[in-house]
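1st attempt posting a full record on here, be nice pls
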Amino acid sequence: MSPRLIGKVALITGASAGIGQACARLLAQEGARLVLTARRQDRLDQLKQEAEKLGTQAVTVVGDAREEDTAIQTVEAATRSFGKIDILINNTGVGNYKNLIDTSAEEYDDMMDTNVRSTFLFTRHAVPLMLKQKEGLVLMISSMAGIYGFGGEAVYCATKFAQVGFAQALDKELRTQGIKVGVICPGGVKTEFALGRGRTEESVRQSDMLDPEDVAGAVLLACTQSPGSRIIEIQMRTMAEALA
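the predicted structure (as tokens):
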């Protein structure tokens, strides 16, 4: 089977680890040209090299996804290098598993800015380009914590519910202009996410959680959907989940 994303340009936030890294690798295998942003230059450089070995191209922008300048610079890099953005994957995220009374205002701000503000900023600056193209796909990597609440995760759940609502509203706002908007809601995933904030390397390693590649597969499904259809929401849970 020939690569399915040849000619497409995908911008991925939080690309240096976990789900973002897995998405970058899978989309590159399918021929997509990549625009990658995260805070770790060495990891972005490695992904760029991997993409080039696969015969595609990648550009990288180092920066904090919570800052508007990072979003502006990344969209400009995409425009300068490739002239368009076909796919935006809002993947940047952070968690902090604490009861409400143990959560500080600073921790609240960190989760809201990382999970919600970054999603707004990159979407805000990528969508004008998609409007000119009269097509595009915007995906939010939310969570099952954006579908229903979990004790000890109230603020995290609030940020993920916000991403789901943002996606639902933008689907209605942008669909008539050729832009698809969807949200991917996985359960727990084996990543660096929340290490030291309620998770440990051992607990993640010993868990039956999803692998980042599982989520990347769902992202690829959304990226290769037929022109006349739209995937609004994908919910994912591990096969090892208890039945009761």
